[in-house]
Predict the 3D structure of the following.
Amino acid sequence: MSVEMTCPLDATTASGSGRVSELKNMVTPGGRVAASAGFMRGHGTYTIDGDLHASVAGVVEQVNKLVCVKPVKSRYIGEIGDVVIGRITEAQQKRWKVETNSRLDSVLMLSSVNLPGGELRRKSLEDELMMREYLHEGDLISAEVQQLFHDGSLSLHTRNLRYGKLSQGVLVKVNPSLVKRRKTHFHNLPCGASVILGCNGYIWISRLVNEQETHTGGYAQNLDEVVPLEERQVIARLSNCVSLLASNRVLLYDTTIISAFDISLQYEIKELLKVDVGAEIALEVRAKLATETQ
Amino acid sequence: MEVHLSDAERVFIVHGVQEGIRNDGRGASDYRPIRVETGVLSTTLGSARVRLASTDVLVGVKAEIDEIDCKQTEKKGRIRFFVDCSANATPLFAGKGGEEMAEFVSTALTDAYSNSMALDLSKLVVSTTKAWTVFVDVVVLECGGNLTDAAALGAKAALADARLANVRIKASDSEKSEIELTDDAYFDSWQLDVTAAPLLVTVNKIGWSNVVDASLQEEVCTKSALVVGVASSPAKGDLVTLVRQTGRGSLEPDSVDEMIALGVRAGNSLNRELDRILVDIGRTQMNRNELVSAAGFLSS
Amino acid sequence: MDLLSEHGYRQDGRKPNQIRNINCRLGVYSQADGSAYLEQGNTKVLAAVYGPHEAKQRSRILEDQCLINCQYSMATFSTSERKYRPRGDRKSTELTRHLEKTFNSAVLTTMYPRSQIDIFCEVLQSDGGNLAACINAASLALVDAGVPMRGIVSAAICGATDGQPCIDLNAAEESANIPRLTPCIDLNAAEESANIPRLTVATLPGGDDDLLLLELDHRVHHDQLEAIIDAAVKGAAQVHACLQTAIRKHVSEVATCLQWENS
């Protein structure tokens, strides 16, 4: 039985990092960014009277003629090729609606999935009726963004054998800006678990995925299988590490997660839930990263 | 917020609980870190804010002088609990969405406190016909699971923090006597004795195991739960002031015994910790001799 | 009660054109998409924003723009006399409509058709200028959520007494019984409950000061109206400066944590 209560009087006030210098290129909504002649309007801006103004608070980014303002926190804005994790909300005619932490629910077309067994054929009427057998409401999938619709919603596909329905594991939700786009988002960590870093801020932690196994497109699930205790402990520790890195605003990629895991081994798994322990680990991770990049 | 889980996630959680390790590494009887503050609102007589992981409740205590109910044999005041699930916590609570949850928690609090041991309501009497009615208002600002326990912690802390002004009866010309409240609301006041006030513990049955302090995901996997009101009085020892079943499932009698036992153990730990915190806060406030009025939203 | 003393100071020591102290913080909740806590003197408000997300009520989906859904609620302990119901009465519904109207004009709704943005305000302590404080807090919460807007909306309440507008009335000032006309900005609850004309104004300072909301309580002579509006807009501009500073500080802190200056 453990009950831990604190009150503000005994918490050491971990003050912010003192004076934070203002960033250059920072704008607030309504601030003028550039004259729109010669510049293209990107995300986070709007035109008025021939001038580009910022519509969100963030940092101005300019790539050639394209000017955008990147906010520090927002809903996920998809790009083609992103790996995302989503939850099925609805099965409609010939497609599923998937919730991906974006402004509108994404769409997974029936033609964009692999059939169980990896068959390749045109989907028949039977397949349409059997859609709920493949994926029903509440299921989690990993997928890739195939295209963007005109209203900004995403169309996903799972046409690669490593995408598909996710089995037993833990989902952690973080701010999408913490997940940078990198070469690979699927990691088999040395500590004994596998992590999928969705660009939309959904992180999936599960037991190690054996690459050599013949994939069935991910639709078969063994719900009777019980994950052993040691693997559960690794998964629990990883999920706490990811949460504490996210609340301390540390970027999430394999290096940071692995170093957080290693540093956290000195604590018990449930101690990682405490705010001060989390802050300390995050600080050590940052210090370790700083020394490594030098 | 709407919490959806896939079948596989559900199975993972249930197996984990049964193996003794929950998704965040806790055991069945471990609580997530709790943070308690008192004296956070200046428009109230007493207030408290409780944060249990991401569950955040703010409790304010106010009081009014009302007529005593003539039908009662012994003269005593009243205590009323009101819970408001603010839409800030989740869009589902907008409009009338949060009423069911709010109703459940306020009824549980009312019933847990409706015994003579919890609070000495006779102290609330000010004259032969009038007594204080104490209102305990709970606002749920953020919901991360286990609202009931957090609300009960907040209610007890706020009642401990409350200062009721001393009242003088002035004889006047008319038949009714006049009630005069003291001008100095802080020093010329008294506090309620909450040592025997109960706390609520929700024990959830997940699979075949019992856990306390369920997270949002664990609440979705719960078939049935038991809310236990636990108080400890120096005179009578441990008391159970409420046992209420909730959820769609049913419970076997043996289960119920185990769950109540777990609830009582957890309740005693919570009571001990809360008493320790309240003593610390009380001592510091006396030393500083001033009222803390920041809501803590600015600093943490 | 006289709003202004003989030396021209108000009950809490402010001059007529002075707003109350503003303290605020963005990102106080982890589960909402955006959130903010704002104190304007003793009025304390918490705002939470959810969205943009897929519209939940099919009947209210707008095909060409985003739906803004608000709720204004006051905690039962927020006023000195206990409030019986937190919301659902006529006044709360009216203030909810004001919030929706204000943010419908400020948020770039045409960019997100068929989606919905929820804005919820909870008043924890009420000391006058509740609507203005809610608009300010909601503005910060929307910025925290990264919702595209035309600018930072700022609001102020202005009363009038003795030939001068008084900005940012507190509750005591709002309740004073003043027949004459002096604009007083940022009324507190005491100032607000007076039978004086009270004007709440929400503006979008920028190139042209766009007025998003104009709401007058009680009555005022036509000649004095312009002076009050003018004072209110100036007060809102002062509020805007505070909000902008807070936002810049918050963005700098977060971006530094995310190490954006290196990337």
Q: What stands out?
A: Chain A has five helices and 18 strands.
